[in-house]
TrEMBL record:
Membrane topology value: Peripheral membrane protein
Native source species: Thermococcus paralvinellae
Subunit field text: The complex is composed of two ATP-binding proteins (NikD and NikE), two transmembrane proteins (NikB and NikC) and a solute-binding protein (NikA).
SMART domains: AAA
GO molecular function: ABC-type nickel transporter activity; ATP binding; ATP hydrolysis activity
Chief location bin: membrane
Pfam family, one: ABC_tran
Protein name: Nickel import system ATP-binding protein NikD
Amino acid sequence: MPESILQVRNLTVHFYTYAGIVRAIEKVSFDVYKGETFALVGETGCGKSVTSRALTQLIESPGRIVEGEVLYYRDEGPVDLLKLDEEQIREIRGNEIAYIFQDPHASLDPLYTVGYQIAEAMEVHGKVKSIKEGIKKAVDILRAVLIPDSERRVKNYPHELSGGMKQRVVIGIGIANNPKILIADEPTTALDVTVQAQILDLINQLKEKYKATVILITHNLGVVAETADRVAVMYAGKIVEIGSVEQIFKNPLHPYTKGLLKAVPNPMTKIERLEAIPGTVPNLITPPSGCRFHPRCPFAMDICKQKIPELKEIEDGHFVACHLY
Ligand SMILES: Nc1ncnc2c1ncn2[C@@H]1O[C@H](COP(=O)(O)OP(=O)(O)OP(=O)(O)O)[C@@H](O)[C@H]1O
Ligand SMILES: [Mg+2]
């Protein structure tokens, strides 16, 4: 049996907007195993970012985590991350569990050198005693993320670096404290294709080097096939299928997963619209009853409108939430 590092149960996040309550994710459950790369995929707006952010309570107003449990297995034993107070979760976030976000411009502060920003990430978690000591270590981190001439680069401001280099710095901040779990939310979307490949390669190398677990959010199924061990497919705020990469790609069960795989002739394109599945992702203020996919599903039956399908294990480690099974 693989050992879980995260057990997410019934995670539910709502956004209380003027237009109504956006049911962004609803009773999302999955396990992440120690040392694996776990991919979250699905169309735009299906809840991938909200899910990953909610793991460490990174949901801002008007959003609220209304239900759920996120058991994080530390060496000392499991802790429910959703039960920690702000100070306790801050100790873990950016430290044991770190994020790499999509947009390096938003992740870096233009007013500080990259060395300072890496140093600060270490200092707030007590990994170095001073910014000065942190900047010395930042040189090694820049080297680890394959930025050439790191002694000089450490003194650069973000605007002095290319987009690809900035994203390497963001990854450097992510790994600065040697996290157990690295959550990469579309880490390469803002970059051009050749740089994308290099950055993914780098994340993989760092994962091996630091023995980290990676949660990779991407709309790029080519990347999933190449780098992930297991995949969770999300639709309209629910997980519809989970399995190994091989199970998902060779034997997709959910009609949505099948459509997703058919719809992406070019795996590098963003999943905005699925030609193979008519219709669009529903409004999450009034999501469809029963299975949220039923209005678009070619196999929909009466029960699909009435009953929310539970995730069921169909073959070893391969789960699907669909009334066909
Ligand atoms: N601050 C917010 N206020 C209201 N609704 C929000 C907010 N943030 C997210 N949502 C809603 O939550 C749902 C899930 O959004 P999320 O950003 O997780 O999607 P995603 O799968 O990451 O999409 P993408 O591929 O475009 O990044 C969407 O319906 C979105 O509109
Ligand atoms: Mg997102």
